[in-house]
Amino acid sequence: xIGWIVLALVILAIVASVAIYNRLVxxxxxxxxxxxxxxxxxxxxxxxxxxxxxxxRKYLQHEQETLTAVIAARxxxxxxxxxxxxxxxxxxxxxxxxxxxxxxxxxxxxxxxFENYPDLKADNQLAALREEIASTENRIAFSRQHYNDxxxxxxxxxxxxxxxxxxGIFGFRAAELLEIEDIADKRQPVQVKFD
Length: 195
Description:
Elements: H1 2-57, H2 64-85, H3 93-114, H4 118-122, H5 124-159, H6 163-170, H7 183-186
Helix pairs in contact: 1-2, 1-5, 1-6, 2-3
């Protein structure tokens, strides 16, 4: 009789372990899929930026340094994304976040430069590209939020008992959140003072 009880407990432990393992795999795959969505949107933005720079180039003859800096930041961010792609977002996310932040700063500088050129601001092609990039930025923000939610759920699952034992045995490692500081958040509101 005791043999049957032990056998039932062993079978129960195996079934529970398989269920926990499968749940962890689902969470990990959800996080990888969420990162793939970020990848699609970032790649889309990286493809739009050279077009934006090319349209601006004909108006910004004296701003070549600004244009070059935007393209260099874009290339750096694209390379950071490539280095992160193979891991599904499990490694290299910090470098990608830093590159994205630098690219955002450069794009902000380029947009500020546009303000000094009324003809450029009125260009329909430029306006369409800026709108497309803004739309893509919104999609990136949504995808990043979904990714961070998926990673948080995955990380929580691998830290909880008894899943942490299975996670340790099968090499499940915590994934990094994609945290990009928004340059706009650092801007101070304009102070209006009447003397």
